[in-house]
């Protein structure tokens, strides 16, 4: 089995009612043979079309599992539940986000946004900080592809008290690194009360090679995935969530270059990790997350000195595993049986009140939000490699809010929760629109729009 990322150009089309339908048809036409798309993003939009990147899994063959549902499968929500205000925050992995592009450095923003909603749903890239994970108390730690499917309306999620977390690690040539990884799992058992039914050492290991895509985003290539899938199949009844610790091959010197880039170098490990967990979650419907293992003890003992604060969590960690184990400990169950979507304990697309993203980021979550009528809040300050104008997308009126920072995003969320039109708390206040409907004898309408209500003296002064 091979997992790779491909770049493709998709032309604009005026003949479709849905961007999702257009992308689904084009992507499936261009993936030949037994390839299955597992991840999709638009890196750049212009007048002629879309530059897209697609993670493709091939060689699934006779793996004993169901045929996975297309990542483009979409089920429109019938209504929006107003019992609670539930927000989703995404910082795409590997796109060089100014906030959240390194080691859990989007966590303060996440904790802020979580404080103004009932349930806060986010993914590992936002809160994973090596040996640190400060997920908000009302937060749900959900793998990125599961968030996509949640917003697409094809799965629900259910809170759990705890999960049995199986850990799969590479057989490492240096026994000391394997022992440190096992000790990290033992520490989680002793401190979190984690139920870890066992640790499986994969021999030979899956080969993960980090690369950069033509857009400059982190991606890669994974070979031998069938070995990991065989382990999952064999142990499936013994665990509820899957943690993976394996070596990610990067060019020599990348560790030193990354820590001394002052935050300018895109984290090379995150993109390929996301590709792996997207595939696992899609095939097995289990929460999953990945932690990279050090290639050598020399790298583990590398003295990098004082680093950019956004990288500090990585600089002080050795195994990078505890954040994964803590997140998976209570990661929600993935519900695929749609008869259960109406159960009060299951969150579905109907329960999502808004989506918060870095400005310019377009992937399945953003496209799904457009189709579902879910408000999207885009944050300009979180600059990244994506080059898309969100205003050019077919958002319904009042469903796209572009803000300067996460402080303002929290304010928009509060307004949405309170039912207050955002523009009503801004000045100047636009004139009220008044329409005169002129009807002829047959009852046909000839609308005539006035310029609005008179502006008061106080408004004029402003």
Identify low-pLDDT runs: 450-462
Q: What is the tally of helical segments?
A: 14
SS class: alpha/beta
| Strand segment count | 21
**Cα radius of gyration in angstroms:** 23 Å
Mean pLDDT over the full residue set: 92
Shape annotation: globular
| Gap from first CA to last CA | 65 Å
Helical content band: 25-40%
Q: How big a fraction of the residues is strand?
A: 15-25%
| Biggest sheet overview | 10 strands, mixed
Key traits:
462 residues; 21 strands; alpha/beta; 14 helices; globular; disordered C terminus; 27% helix; 6-stranded parallel sheet; 4 domains; 10-stranded mixed sheet
Could you describe the 3D structure shown?
The strands form four sheets. Strands 1, 2, 3, 8, 9, 10, 11, 12, 13 and 17 form a ten-stranded mixed beta sheet that branches. Strands 6-5-4-16-18-19 form a six-stranded parallel beta sheet, with helices on both faces. Residues 450-462 have low confidence and may be disordered. It is globular, with a radius of gyration of 23 Å. The chain has 14 helices and 21 strands. The chain is of the alpha/beta class and 462 residues long. The longest helix is centred in the middle third of the chain and has 18 residues, at 175-192. Strand 10 and strand 11 form a beta hairpin. Helix 4 runs parallel beside helix 12 (364-372). The chain folds into four domains: 2-58, no CATH class; 86-335, no CATH class; 356-425, no CATH class; 427-462, no CATH class.
């Amino acid at each position: 089995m091979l997992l790779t990322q491909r770049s493709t150009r998709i032309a604009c089309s005026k003949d479709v009612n849905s961007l999702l339908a257009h992308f689904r048809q084009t992507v499936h036409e261009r993936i030949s043979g037994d390839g299955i798309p597992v991840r999709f993003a638009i890196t750049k939009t212009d007048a002629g079309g879309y530059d897209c990147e697609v993670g493709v899994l091939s060689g699934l063959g006779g793996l004993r599992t169901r045929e996975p549902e297309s990542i483009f499968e979409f089920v429109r929500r019938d209504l929006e539940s107003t019992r609670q205000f539930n927000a989703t925050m995404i910082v795409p992995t590997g796109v060089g986000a100014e906030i959240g592009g390194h080691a859990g450095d989007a966590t303060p923003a996440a904790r802020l946004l979580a404080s103004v909603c009932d349930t806060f749903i986010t993914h590992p890239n936002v809160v994973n900080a090596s040996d640190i994970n400060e997920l908000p108390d009302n937060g749900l730690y959900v793998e990125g592809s599961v968030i996509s499917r949640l917003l697409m309306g094809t799965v629900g999620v259910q809170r759990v008290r705890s999960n049995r977390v199986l850990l799969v690690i590479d057989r490492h040539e240096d026994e000391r690194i394997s022992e440190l990884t096992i000790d990290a799992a033992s520490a989680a058992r002793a401190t979190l009360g984690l139920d870890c039914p066992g640790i499986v050492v994969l021999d030979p290991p899956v080969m993960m090679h980090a690369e950069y895509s033509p857009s400059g985003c982190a991606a890669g290539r994974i070979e031998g995935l069938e070995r990991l899938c065989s382990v999952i199949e064999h142990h499936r009844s013994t665990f509820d969530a899957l943690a993976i610790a394996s070596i990610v091959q990067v060019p020599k010197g990348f560790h030193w270059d990354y820590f001394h880039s002052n935050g300018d170098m895109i984290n090379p490990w995150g993109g390929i990790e996301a590709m792996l967990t997207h595939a696992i979650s899609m095939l097995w419907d289990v929460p999953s997350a990945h932690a990279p293992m050090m290639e050598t003890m020399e790298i583990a003992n590398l003295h990098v000195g004082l680093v950019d604060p956004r990288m500090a969590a990585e600089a002080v960690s050795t195994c990078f595993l505890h954040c994964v184990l803590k997140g998976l400990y209570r990661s929600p169950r993935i519900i695929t049986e749609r008869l259960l979507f109406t159960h009060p304990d299951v969150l579905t697309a109907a329960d999502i009140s808004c989506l918060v993203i870095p400005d310019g980021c377009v992937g399945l979550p953003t496209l799904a939000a457009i189709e579902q009528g879910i408000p999207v809040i885009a944050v300009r300050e979180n600059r990244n490699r994506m080059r898309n104008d969100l205003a050019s997308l077919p958002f319904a009126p009042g469903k796209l809010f572009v803000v300067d920072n996460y402080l303002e995003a929290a304010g928009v969320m509060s307004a949405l929760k309170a039912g207050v039109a955002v523009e009503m708390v801004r000045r100047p206040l636009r004139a009220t629109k008044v329409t005169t409907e002129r009807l002829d004898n047959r009852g046909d309408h000839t609308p005539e729009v006035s310029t609005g209500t008179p502006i008061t003296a106080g408004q004029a002064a402003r």
